[in-house]
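During the no-cost extension, the postdoctoral fellow (Dr. R.K.) reprocessed legacy sequence entries with the updated structure-token encoder. One reprocessed record is reproduced below for audit purposes.
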Amino acid sequence: MNELLKSGFVTLIGRPNVGKSTLMNHLIGQKIAITSKKPQTTRNRIQTVYTEEGKGQIIFVDTPGIHKAKNKLGEYMVNVAEKSLRDVDVVLWLVEPSNFIGAGEQHIIQQLKRITIPVILVINKIDTVKKEEVLSFIDTYRKVFDFAEIVPLSALRGENTRILPELIFKYLPYGPMFYDEDTVTDQPERQIVAELIREKALHALDEEIPHGIAVAIDRMKRRPGKDITDIEATIICERDSHKGIIIGKGGAMLKKIGSNARFEMERLLECRVNLKLWVKVKKDWRDSDFMIKNFGYKDEDA
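Re-encoded structure tokens follow.
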């Protein structure tokens, strides 16, 4: 074993929709976390693994965005995010490029002041502002907290992202790697498949509906001796009117969600996929402890 290897856990925090999953997918080079312009996309704590030869291993823990909870699912998500701050070696805080530090950011600063872990501030989406403005954003944030590093970058465009692993390794402890070097995530395939369906539904549907959907994988089985996997899944929504919208006229919307998801699944599983989707209504599932657990949001994550 190389004594000079470093390895440790890094959590990505930030308000919803700041680009945490996009950054993680970019660094890992694979699609693990689902992305969408709609908030509350990531609901569970997702671990992905970045291994660099001769350097070591970074285990990224992507958490739900820290926000004001409106229901039990919301509370669960905020708990997961805030708890992860205490269990890691480095915190990566993602913010948007701005001189205004809003109430959401102030809340995160208060959380960070309670810990002694190095915090790297990542100012994401710099492709959306003028280059000369970036220095003033760095200055604004530098005054409110003692960051270990401040990195302006664009996760979407891959601008200035290469420096990030290097800076993270600086703050990680020496020690053996936690995972094999070819591991990229600890997510079970069934969970990634369910999340892919949810992502495609988020992309295709109206603003109002996506928060109220979950996906359950009813069956996932590789056909013996064949390069094909049969997957049956149910999209759960909260209202009958939502069910109609998800299915769409003549089943068009459900077909669109299914074919978009199948394309990604075939890349993930490296085989053909036969996907069947159903839609069910479970009223107020986001306020039911039993249902939240049932759809894969486990207590031990919170």
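The beta strands are 6-13, 46-52, 56-62, 90-95, 119-123, 149-152, 214-222, 228-237, 272-281. The longest helix spans residues 252-269. The remaining legacy entries will be reprocessed before the final report is submitted.
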